[in-house]
Amino acid sequence: MAELFLRGQPLADATGTPFPIEAVLFDKDGTLCISEPMLQTLASARVFHACELLVQRHPELPVSQGDELAQLLQRAYGLSNSAIHPAGATAVGSRSHNLISTATALAQVGLGWPEALELSERVFTATDGLHGQGSVHRPIATAGLHDLMQTLQDAGVVCAVISNDDEAGIEAFLASQNLRSSFQALWSADHNPRKPNPAAVHALCAQLGIQASHCALIGDANSDLRMAQQAGVPVVLGYGAGWSIAPPLDPRFPCLQHWRELQVNAGQHIG
Prior knowledge:
15% strand; 6-stranded parallel β-sheet; alpha/beta; Rossmann fold
């Protein structure tokens, strides 16, 4: 067991007793890694291909329909000229979530649902190579992460990833940053149930053989934080430094901006 401190203050219960922590569960994009340049490129390519396919399939449509589609997709993806919004579908949603968002936008400009789904599948097939290690903008670890991982390992704290990326994407990121040995388990979009279902936390904890009541969870989205709270995780922390736009995190949850703000005290024992 270990105790966690945020900026020197113990993360404790109402009586001031620090919570004994055996494991820390981390979100991936925007928490473990800076993935915004990659995701911005990916989302931009999806918008471009969707508009191109719409024009090719329906040349009779006015130009304004293509412009409307681009605007709908940009809003759904959380895409702007200079950033990805950390609460948009590209940042927090799985591939299937984003595909459905794309099909919905195509339906809104007049396509029937079967055709909208078909074109969305074609868009994603054309752009999937821009995600993960196929991107020229590969995700990199957030500042100070390696030092924190070593500190947690030295304290005997187990670490795991819970993400809506697929398992291959998580594995590729960890391997590229020499972090794979720091994580004992993964829960991805390939698993069921997915985030933000609290049962995903319970399933990951079962893999680890650790109760949720002895875990901490750190994420960059309110869906992460509320999921953890509903799952009975006692230490729930927001991480705000993974995006160029600060994520709109619920102020009820403590938030850190750099991993050095989190300290670990090893050797806590339960009597």
